[in-house]
Every structure is written in C-alpha cells, then in structure tokens.
Amino acid sequence: MTSILTEPVTGPSAWRAADFTGEDDWVVTLTPEEIHELDAALTSARIRELPLEALTMADFPLPALGKTLERAVQDLEFGRGFTVLRGLPVERWTPDEARLAYWGIALHLGTPVSQNADGELIAHVKDYDEGGLDNPATRAYRTRNALPFHTDSSDIVGLLCLRGAGQGGGVSTLASSMTVHNHLLAHHRELLGLYYRGFVYDRRTEEGSQELPYYRNAVYGYFDGQLSCRFYMTHYIESAVAKTGIPLSGIERHALRLFQDIAERDDHRVEMTLRPGDLQLLNNNVVVHGRSAYEDDPGRRRDLLRLWLNTRYARCIPEDFARFRRGMPRTRR
Amino acid sequence: MTSILTEPVTGPSAWRAADFTGEDDWVVTLTPEEIHELDAALTSARIRELPLEALTMADFPLPALGKTLERAVQDLEFGRGFTVLRGLPVERWTPDEARLAYWGIALHLGTPVSQNADGELIAHVKDYDEGGLDNPATRAYRTRNALPFHTDSSDIVGLLCLRGAGQGGGVSTLASSMTVHNHLLAHHRELLGLYYRGFVYDRRTEEGSQELPYYRNAVYGYFDGQLSCRFYMTHYIESAVAKTGIPLSGIERHALRLFQDIAERDDHRVEMTLRPGDLQLLNNNVVVHGRSAYEDDPGRRRDLLRLWLNTRYARCIPEDFARFRRGMPRTRR
Q: Taking CB atoms and an 8 Å limit, are B196 and A1 in contact across chains?
C-alpha cells in the first residue's frame, strides 16, 4: 500500500515566499570565464557535426561551468528545488547554436527525455496557433494561455528563455508543493487521501494505438521517506472526463481548486520574469509552476526552449506514480 | 462542493456491539393478534386478485401491526438503523401468500423500488447457479458466497427469511457505518476524502443500451447536517476496473480494506442468524451488512425474499450520491 505522510515536511524544499529576499537568492549569473568555456565547447561540438543524441558529456568539456551546474543539480535535488542560470548569450547565438549549447549544458545536468509523442527532446514553448487549453487535442506548452500551477512529467524541467513576450505577460510563478502539503496536513487533513489517489488525465491524442487515451496519476506519493508531487494540468483532467464518462465529484473539484489556492497564496508563491538568456530549472517533485497569459509582438513570438531531464540524484519513485518520468513514449512517426 | 463531516456522529445510529445485550434489543416478536390481523388482510387482498403494483395500504388494513411497523420505520430512520420482526408464519403460507403478505407489510413501511434490470420489486436472495461473485455478469444476491460488508442501493432493505441454509452458514453481520466514520475520523482522518469521492462500480450487465457499464458513487456524503453511507460491493469495483482501464491505486485498495476491517472489529459488529419468519430491516444510510458463505441441503435452497424501499422519513440526498436509491432502471424486457 501507499502510505500518507502525516508529519510536516521540513528542510529547504518546504520554502515560503518570506524565505527569500529577492531574485539574488536563486539567480546564478554565469561568469565571463564560464561563457567563454561554453562557447569553446560549442565550437568543438559543432565541428563534429553529430546529431544531438550521439553527443556525450565528454563532447562538451566544461571544467568550470560544470561545477556551477553540479551546484544547480544539488539545489534542485536537495535544496529549494529551483534555480535560474542567467547570462547565456542566446542573442548572439543562432537558433542551432542555442540548441546545441543547451544540449551540452543538459548533458552535465542529467539525461534528457522525450517530451511528446514526436519524441522531441528539446521543445519550443510557444504559441503554435492551435487554439487554447480548451482544445483537447493540444498541450499546454503550445498555447499562450495562463497556465495554473502544475508540474511536468519528468523530474526536472528546464526553460531557456530565447525571447520574452513583446506585449507583456508570461510571468513565471513558483510554489513549493511541500509547503502546499504542509498546509493541507495542518488545515485540510481529511482531503489528503484524494491527492494520493490522484486524478485521471487525458493523453491529449498522444496515446499509442493500443493504449487508452487517459491514465490515472497521483498528486502526492510518499516513498522511501520522501514526499514527491505530480500535479499535472487540471485541463487534462477536465478533458479526460469526456473520455471516461466518469464525472469529477464535488470533493475532487474542491481539492483541485484548493491546491491552486494554497499554492497561489502571497506567503507561498514567488514570481519572476525570465529574460532572454535565463535558464530556469525546476524540480517537479517539490515545485509547482505556472505562468500568466501573454501577448506576442507581431512576427516575434515568445519562445522558451524546454528540456525534460532526470539527474543523477533522481529519487526512487514507483512506475505507477510518475509513468512518463523517463519520457513520453514516441507514438507518432 | 461536498463537505466532509469532521465531527463525530452522535446518537443511536453510531452504535457499537457493547450497546446491545443481545437480540432482545432488536428483535420484535409479532403478537398472535398481529399475526391474525395480517392473515385477515392477506385473505381480503387475495380475494381481490390484483397485481401487487395495483394494491395500496388501504388494501391491507393493519391497525395494530401498523403501529409496530411505524415503530420499526422510526427505529430505522432515527434509531439504530436496523430491526428484526420475528414470527411471520411463512411455513404455513404458500410462496404466493408469503409474497403478498410481505408486500402488504412493505406498503406500511414505505415505497418498494426496482432491484434490478428486470424491474423486480421482490427478489429472491438465493443461489441461482450462475457462479460466484467473481462472475462479472451476476449480482451478489444470486450467489452463495460470503458477502463482505456493503449496502444496497435503496434507503431500506428488507430480508424475509423463508428458509435457512441446510448445511450451515449464511450468518448475517451488521455494523454501523456511522461508527466506522467516527473511527476513520479519529484514527485515519487523512483518508476520509477518498470515501467522499468514492469508487467506480460495474453495472454488472444491467446498464441500458445508451449507458456506460459503470458509474462512480461516493461512500460517504454529508448533506443537510446528516451523514449517509453507500458502500456497494467491492467486487463491483474490481470488475469495473476491466471496463474503465483505470486501476485502483494502492491507497484506494487500502481504504476499501480498512473500511471492512473497521466494520468487522469485534467491538463494532453484531451477528445474527435469521430464522424462517424473521424479517430483517436495515437502513443502508447508516448500517452496512454482510453474511458468511453457506451451503444448501440438496433440493432445499436458502431463500430470503428481498425488498428495497424508501420510507416516508427518507432523508434528502443528492441524485449523484445515490443514483439508484429510487430503484434500478428496468433495462431488460
């Protein structure tokens, strides 16, 4: 059986807004030496003309930046669960160079995994003109809608800002799902089991031909003395109802709304606006993230390069808690 | 939204085994005068040769027994939620007479409702040779299996014993689901939400042609200051999994097992063996019932006549909490 954690989570992952004085607490600005090292690694990797998947960490020697990245991984796994690396020179890189440099950094952080049915390892988070979140055939990252608090499927998500939203919006918000659990335990203990049971999510047309178009996933799981969270997009729950024929109960709707409300509290959430060259890294196990809606300038779309990855310190989680943690299966060719 | 009761239930419905000294606390033996009155009403109703559905309370005048039945309804709705009327002369009645007399009593208790897709208003609880509970095309009352604690769909269930099990078994067990809730609240509060969300149940081939073969129902609901329970057969949950493709989570299995374990505690449950002529009446809103497996004598099957009914004091419950409370839709002709 799955047990429910009935003690508060302590330590740096259970942070609150007041634990930070400002962005200096989580922004790590890369030094000129680190940028130089990255450019040199990029140049040597480009010369080899290998596909991304064929490259290894050894193809991107980063003796100094590598130590910074190791500290970032430690912050993600054992600290507050998020960090921002600032100053990647995305404006002077070509799109291909940005992609390759990002990949090189990713190999130092962990193992990138597929993010969708096309098997994409680096995906553009931007408006694809496929409509909004209410379109059950599209995924959230392909819209410019406000996204409520959620996690992605992998352990770690990286968002490298290439271009911000010209007409404003797209503010990033984070909250500690450990702090949300502490709040639920203290004030709504009778609801906890609902989150451990979880919800049924729509695969949003990404299922294989022999698979059901939905699956159940827990929001919280307590394994080996560690609490982990998977809070996928509530819109995927709503669109799954049409496929299962099983409506959400009033208590489930209440629990979903309550999770958002607790995460959104002023004393819980932090906000940040990513600049071009900022790489935001989040540990989905302990942090939920969202963003406000945004508007693009004509012909210049907000563009974040997204990575999903698992690091070398990845915690043990059963398969049925985080089914796509090691990547979304490639079901389209 | 549905709210969760976070105070203990008090009053006679939250009983424990030690609240009773023995069956004298719940058995009401009918007097010779009451039996005589019933026989007279039976005779006058038979002469009219009307179908059961055409008869009304006025066709069964029971001035004395009627008062006893009113007290039974009060016990069901406002008291401990169960009672046994003893001494119905089923052994000298023909099967048709027993059926008609039972119907007459039922009209004094409340309104009988359909129990299955055939629209049966009085069903025989006996072994139909359709296999056991594991056959997903049969319902529990048609087997001789042990039945774990459960409720039926209507508010009230009546079981009139025509014949016991010749080779033993079939012992009836009851527990207060109000006491189970009190225990959960005190010792497993974090699980309560799971019961208020409920489970998905198999319709067991009784769905209409335009209906899904399963539906979700809550175990507990708190409405208008009153807690109510619907804990349908766990076997129906298991067989629904094959139809939805959504497996039970570990925490759901734990919650289902825990409910049984709490109800089965020696300090919670009471046991009784029904004799021919015993009419056991239970309020599903506050009492769960089960029975042990049994073996029949060759050619003489254990036979209980079952009624589902709603009484004039029926509590207000939303439709989505107890969908078939007013009867299982007749979908077979």
A: no
Helix (H) or strand (E) holding A201: strand A199-202
Q: Tens-of-pLDDT digits for all 333 residues of chain A?
A: 569 999 999 999 999 999 999 999 999 999 999 999 999 999 999 998 888 889 999 999 999 999 999 999 999 999 999 999 999 999 999 999 999 999 999 999 999 999 988 888 999 999 998 988 888 888 888 899 999 999 999 999 999 999 998 888 899 999 999 999 999 999 999 999 999 999 999 998 888 888 999 999 999 999 999 999 999 999 999 999 999 999 999 999 999 999 999 999 999 999 999 999 999 999 999 999 999 999 999 889 999 999 999 999 999 998 889 988 888 888 887
User: What whole-number distance in Å separates Cα of residue B247 and Cα of residue B240?
Assistant: 9
Gap between the Cα atoms of B197 and A219, Å rounded: 15
Regarding pTM above 0.95, the answer is no
* Whole-angstrom distance, CA of residue B180 vs CA of residue B36: 41
Contact A192 B197 (CB under 8 A): no
DSSP state at residue B225? T
Cβ–Cβ < 8 Å for B327, B117: no
**Cross-strand partners of A283:** A156
Closest partner CB to A251 (pick from B196, B244, B253): B196
Contact call for B246 and A215, based on CB within 8 A: yes
> Closest residue of A to B191, CA-based?
A193
Picking from B214, B245, B251, the nearest residue to A197 by CB comes out as: B251
CA of A189, closest CA in chain B: separation in Å? Answer: 5
* Total H helices, total E strands in chain B: 7, 15
Q: How far apart are CA A7 and CA A10, in angstroms?
A: 9
Q: Which residues of A touch B193 (CB under 8 A)?
A: 190-194, 251, 255
Identify all chain B residues contacting A181, using CB atoms and an 8 Å cutoff.
Answer: none
Contacts of A244 in chain B (CB under 8 A): 244, 246
Cβ B305 vs Cβ B92: under 8 Å: no
- Asked if A169 contacts A294 with a C-beta cutoff of 8 angstroms, the reply is yes
Find out whether B295 and B155 touch, Cβ atoms under 8 Å.
no
Query: What's the DSSP call for residue A275?
Result: P
Q: What is the pLDDT of residues B280-301, one digit of tens each?
A: 999 999 999 999 999 999 889 9
Radius of gyration of chain B (CA): 19
Neighbours of B327 (CB within 10 A): 19
Amino acid at residue number B285: N
Residue B105: both structure tokens together: 């009593």
Q: Is the separation of the CB atoms in B172 and B273 below 8 Å?
A: yes
State the burial class of residue B22 (Cβ atoms within 10 Å of its Cβ: 0-12, 13-18, 19+): exposed
Pairing of strands B82-86, B279-283: antiparallel
Interface mutation vs chain A, best among B3, B5, B196, most A CBs within 10 Å: B196
- Nearest residue of A to residue B245 by CA position? A212
Using DSSP's 3-state secondary structure scheme, residue B202 falls into strand
Q: Does domain B30-192+264-310 have CATH number 3.60.130.10?
A: yes
When scoring B187, B194, B248, B317 by the number of chain A Cβ atoms within 10 A, the one with the most, hence best to mutate, is B194
User: Do residues A287 and A81 lie in contact, with contact meaning Cβ atoms separated by under 8 Å?
Assistant: yes
Report whether B123 contacts B115 (CB < 8 A). yes
Q: What is the DSSP letter of A163?
A: E
Residues of A with CB under 8 A from a CB of B: 1-2, 4, 6, 185, 189-194, 196-198, 200, 212, 214-216, 218, 244-247, 249-255, 320
Residues in chain A: 333
